[in-house]
Every structure is written in structure tokens, then in C-alpha cells.
Design goal:
alpha+beta; eight-stranded antiparallel beta sheet; six-stranded mixed beta sheet; 10 helices; 25% helix; ATPase_AAA_core; RecF-like; ATP hydrolysis activity; ATP binding; P-loop_NTPase
Length: 380
């Protein structure tokens, strides 16, 4: 399980080190940095598939993503750092400004806004220490701890936009483990429920243990939970939200899956196109949270959006059920949902973010670095 996540110099996150529990709830006022934290976690997850540099470039490069306060700008030493630590291992990556390069002779490079990876480290245990280092990258040079404890230097230097997690995972089981851990992280953010939402359309279905990020395969995902997942938990979640109701999945003459919700008092079940936004969103969260293939970390951004207040307690129970099988982080605007998750019997870890007078995101109640989890960044 992850115990700590750390971010430095990303948007309003000048320096943020957060404790994580099995179920962590992040809340705070508008503009306090919740969305920045969510995006930073997505960037960190992208490192496992080699997509972090590209994701930063799509944000406009480091000039757009970097902390824009007093230390913003292109001065030496400015960097964007992301990392996590857990009971077994930790990982940190440091992105910096690129060194201007040219393409082929006479061809100027158009990629000089791409950030470069300046430093990467993988270590054993929850805290970076020299003795705990397993893989260490400084610029293009990488060294990996050998079987007998000594260092082995990779024979070929890495390009500045390639992560050692992708390029050298075959040389180290620890690199492979961290890469696969990051690749397993799953994110859901504002899944559509409007009239043209993909989840409302009938689609050909196959076994779907993981709901798509746009919810297009909702019917197939729910049927998969019913057949190979925790169908009892699904039935209880639906009944808790809509007493006496049950999900039905049918197949039309073209083999497309149809989602229906049978409710007491109605002569026929309602199809996906007829469901309210809140009802459809709750069913989407049911499919995502009761996945038969739980990730190592599941992150939800504002799951309460468009839900009636009466659905917050069932949603809290659904989130707590999911947290028994996967580590869960919930970013929410709703004080009611945060209160339901942190009260008995769920006892989630609560993190409240706020902005200080310098525009930096901080954790409410902290008086200084001694109040945060121990964390050490690798030096350049």
C-alpha cells in the first residue's frame, strides 16, 4: 500500500507531501489545489507507461505546469518533482528545462519545449536513503543495484525524454515492479452523463472487468460484475441508493448490450437513455468501484457531481466497500461526502487543502514540515 505521495513545483503545489491510507479523502475550497493534486497524480501514473513527458508537453511544457510563484521562471535549479512511497518501495522523478538541441544537420528541432528527466530513483522501503537505493538515474546515466548488492551501470545512456522504468525495466525486477504498479493506477474524472453520453448508448459488449474512462461500456461492465465479480455487493449498492430497484442487462437483436433499471411501481424498466444524470452516474461508480480487476490505486475526482444529497450515504458505503480491495483516493467538493467517509464505520484519512497568503497549497492544520510524513527528494 502507498503511504506517501509528494509533489513539488506543480501549479499551486509548491511543496506538498500527503499521507495516504486505504481510503483517503481530499477536500477543500474551490481553488485550493485539489484539481492540481489530481492532475499531478495522473502525471505520476503516466510515468509507468512513458507518457509523463508527453502529458507535460500537452500542458504547454514546463512553463505552463511549473509553480508560478516567487521561484517560477527559467532560473537554474527550477524543477518539477513527483514521487510516492509505500511499504515496499518508492519512486521519484525530477523534470527540468530542456537543453536546446538541433535535429539533423540544418534542421532545427521543434521539440525544445519537451521537459527532460533530470533525475529518477527507485528505492526499497518508505524513505529514500543511500543504502535503500535500488536504481539511480542522473541525466542519461543509470546504475542498478546488482544481485550481490553492488552497482551495475547501464551500458547505454538514456535519452532525456525516456524513463528508466520503460527502457531498463528488464534489467531490474524492482524497476519492473514500480512500472507495473504505476501502470495499474486507475483514474475517473467527471464521466459524462448528458443526453449524448456514451454510457446511454447500446453497444456490443464483451467481458469488461475494467470500466472505460468514458463509461461507454457500462452495460457490459455491470454484467461482468454480476457474472465474475461481487454481484451481491452490486445488488446491495443499487438497493441502498434506489430501494427495491435492480439492474437488468439485456441484448438486442444486433447483439448490443442494453442497460435497464427496474424500479418498484413502474410497469417496465427504464433504459439507459431514460435515466436521470444522477442515477446514471451512480451506476457508473458502481461499475468502476466494484471492478473484478481492482488496481493498486483508484483515484476518483468529484464523484458526488450531479448526485442528489440522498445518494451521498450510499456512495460513501460503496466507496468504503471498494477500499477493502483497492487503495482509494477521493477528491471531493462535498463536505457531506467527506463527513460520511471519515465518520464511523469508514474512518477514512481526511486531507483538507487550503491556499496560504503566497498562493501555495497547504494541508490544513499543519504548522510546519515536522507535521508532514517524512520525505526526501533525490538531489541533482
Amino acid at each position: 500500500m502507498l503511504t506517501t505521495v509528494a509533489v513539488e513545483n506543480y501549479r499551486s503545489l509548491r511543496r506538498l507531501v500527503l499521507p495516504l491510507g486505504a481510503l483517503t479523502v481530499v477536500t477543500g475550497a474551490n481553488g485550493s489545489g485539489k484539481s492540481s493534486l489530481y492532475k499531478a497524480l495522473r502525471l505520476l501514473g503516466e510515468a509507468g507507461s512513458g507518457g509523463a513527458v508527453g502529458a507535460l508537453a500537452r500542458e504547454g511544457g514546463l512553463p505552463s505546469a511549473l509553480w508560478a510563484g516567487e521561484r517560477g521562471g527559467r532560473e537554474a535549479g527550477v524543477s518539477l518533482k513527483l514521487g510516492f512511497a509505500g511499504d515496499e518501495c518508492g519512486y521519484a522523478v525530477d523534470f527540468g528545462y530542456p537543453i536546446a538541441t538541433a535535429g539533423a544537420p540544418g534542421v532545427p528541432s521543434l521539440f525544445n519545449l519537451d521537459p527532460e528527466i533530470k533525475r529518477e530513483c527507485v528505492w526499497h522501503g518508505p524513505l529514500l536513503r543511500p543504502a535503500a537505493l535500488l536504481s539511480d538515474r542522473a541525466g542519461p546515466r543509470v546504475k542498478v543495484r546488482g544481485e550481490r548488492g553492488g552497482w551495475e551501470t547501464a551500458p547505454k545512456g538514456l535519452r532525456p525524454y525516456d524513463s528508466m522504468l520503460g527502457e531498463l525495466a528488464g534489467r531490474s525486477p524492482e524497476l519492473t515492479r514500480v512500472r507495473e504498479l504505476l501502470r495499474s493506477w486507475r483514474f475517473y474524472d467527471q464521466v459524462r452523463t448528458d443526453a449524448d453520453a456514451p454510457a446511454r448508448a447500446a453497444r456490443v459488449g464483451t467481458r469488461t472487468p475494467v470500466l472505460a474512462s468514458d463509461g461507454a461500456d457500462l452495460a457490459a461492465a455491470l454484467q461482468t460484475v454480476r457474472e465474475i465479480g461481487d454481484h451481491e455487493a452490486l445488488g446491495e449498492a443499487v438497493d441502498a441508493a434506489f430501494p427495491g430497484s435492480a439492474v437488468e442487462i439485456g441484448v438486442d437483436e444486433d447483439g448490443r448490450f442494453l442497460l435497464r433499471l427496474r424500479q418498484p411501481g413502474l410497469r417496465r424498466p427504464l433504459g439507459a437513455a431514460e435515466l436521470s444524470d444522477g442515477t446514471l452516474r451512480y451506476l457508473l461508480w458502481s461499475a468502476a468501484l466494484l471492478t473484478p480487476r481492482p488496481p493498486d490505486l483508484l483515484v476518483l475526482n468529484e464523484p458526488e457531481s450531479s448526485l442528489h444529497p440522498s445518494l451521498l450515504a450510499p456512495l460513501a458505503s460503496l466507496l468504503a466497500t471498494a477500499a477493502r480491495r483497492t487503495q482509494l483516493l477521493v477528491v471531493t467538493h462535498s463536505p457531506a461526502l467527506a463527513e460520511a467517509l471519515t465518520a464511523r464505520p469508514h474512518h477514512a484519512t481526511l486531507v483538507e487543502l487550503l491556499k496560504n497568503e503566497n498562493g501555495e497549497t497547504e494541508v490544513a492544520g499543519r504548522e510546519g514540515p515536522l507535521d508532514e510524513p517524512p520525505w526526501q527528494w533525490p538531489k541533482r
